Task: structure prediction
Amino acid sequence: MTTNSGVPEVVVDRLPQYLRALSQLESSGIDVISSQQLGELLQVTPAQIRKDLSYFGRFGKQGRGYSISHLLGRLRNILGLDQTWNVAVIGVGRLGRSIISYPGFQPEGFRVVCAFDSDSGVVGQVAGGLTVYDFADYAEVAKRENVQIAIVAVPANVAQAVIDDLVAAGVKSILNYAPKSALTPADVRIRNVDPVVSLQSMTYYLSAR
Amino acid sequence: MTTNSGVPEVVVDRLPQYLRALSQLESSGIDVISSQQLGELLQVTPAQIRKDLSYFGRFGKQGRGYSISHLLGRLRNILGLDQTWNVAVIGVGRLGRSIISYPGFQPEGFRVVCAFDSDSGVVGQVAGGLTVYDFADYAEVAKRENVQIAIVAVPANVAQAVIDDLVAAGVKSILNYAPKSALTPADVRIRNVDPVVSLQSMTYYLSAR
DNA sequence: AATTGATTGTAAATAGATTCACAAACAGGG
DNA sequence: CCCTGTTTGTGAATCTATTTACAATCAATT
Ligand SMILES: NC(=O)c1ccc[n+]([C@@H]2O[C@H](COP(=O)([O-])OP(=O)(O)OC[C@H]3O[C@@H](n4cnc5c(N)ncnc54)[C@H](O)[C@@H]3O)[C@@H](O)[C@H]2O)c1
Ligand SMILES: NC(=O)c1ccc[n+]([C@@H]2O[C@H](COP(=O)([O-])OP(=O)(O)OC[C@H]3O[C@@H](n4cnc5c(N)ncnc54)[C@H](O)[C@@H]3O)[C@@H](O)[C@H]2O)c1
Result:
């Protein structure tokens, strides 16, 4: 699947891995790395790293390798991470609250700017410093707050309906925590975070066969 | 990558999706489905579903489709989900606690049977009904409790060390929540749950290009 | 300034995954 | 009991991804 321009989706999905490894290398003081070394670190062949990067340009130097800070900058730019992204959380229950106060998003440029629920007992409350809006007002609030990404943390049985509403409101990227694989139009990107699915594929290999 | 027997890893990774969709169909009272219909529901081609299933046997009937309850049984068996799996959680901080009390594991046959931390302020506490053990005693306790799967919820900077210890103790399946891609031997399966990585690949498509 | 050793970027080859396409099988009429 | 309309299971074809292999390039050294 290339889906968009000429870059295969698998390649785009590997870039954040490279980014993370390079970040760590940078903060440990190293400033040049070869595809060989990076590959060892990530369990990926050096050729794959070079080929992946070659979709976007020529970032290395023959005989030396890649300047980590330079490559980091380029990867951030390619992935659109040289800007801040505004995120909305839908569903302010146990999970929604922990997402709102998860400190891992902010440093990576993702800012939770508003939260929504449909329960009148929750709407109007303050959670993690954010006032909870009525999900019925999503389109209006999201526009005002300039939201580009929605995180869905509602019960599975309403997930599809919520996602339909989000799509109708123009959202193009959704991170879905509900254990439900939801349907979206081809131009809307959805990623599922589901630990049970991950466990279920590992047990295949654990089972005697 | 086939990694083990003749079944490609991508195929195994799709089975839990099929399982989940079929479960929902079953509870909504339907009892037969064609690859065509299931494919529409999951945004997958019917041929792919049929080919995936054909790695494991012949579960359908020409002219009719698949008996949902029968196929569910077969998929559960193939994935090793007709047994209960004992899980250990490593790192009893904010995340570790929510994992321990997450109600989504139990119904799918994953039981969190013990929890570990290295902080003496946490060891001995009770969290979600479980006494927290010292991670130094992992091998012993895990053996006694018959643990087959470990969930890692420790800070990124200690994740590799913790995972090395788990591997040394004989763990073959790890679900890692730390934002760190860790190295493991080829016979140890690791899956990462990382919402930031998912977001970072979506922003690629959001960015003007 | 030539030589060495390392490493990139990529074209071509290989391997792997998906889709096509159709014979075989089955249920439900008539 | 024989059509008719479906839908499976799967070999072959196609498409996609990965790996190989090497010329081009660069820094360091003599
Ligand atoms: N993927 C994961 O790691 C993970 C972890 C925990 C929970 N979950 C899932 O996340 C979801 C939420 O879990 P939770 O424990 O927070 O549940 P919860 O019941 O505590 O919270 C759900 C919230 O969604 C709200 N809600 C319901 N319908 C809504 C609608 N139509 N619009 C807006 N808000 C609505 C409810 O009012 C409630 O506040 C569940 O689907 C659960 O299975 C996933
Ligand atoms: N993937 C996700 O969705 C997600 C969400 C939240 C947090 N996280 C990550 O999960 C990890 C934990 O987050 P948290 O908020 O619970 O942090 P936390 O600080 O609250 O908890 C971490 C716990 O790990 C324990 N620990 C430290 N070193 C240990 C060791 N060597 N052995 C055993 N236990 C040890 C600490 O004592 C602490 O109790 C972090 O890496 C965080 O980035 C991931």
Notes: Chain A has two domains: 9-78, 85-197. The pocket of nicotinamide-adenine-dinucleotide (ligand 2) is lined by residues A 102, 104; B 90-96, 116-119, 122, 135, 153-156, 158, 162, 177-179, 193-195 (CB under 6 Å). Chain A has eight helices and ten strands.
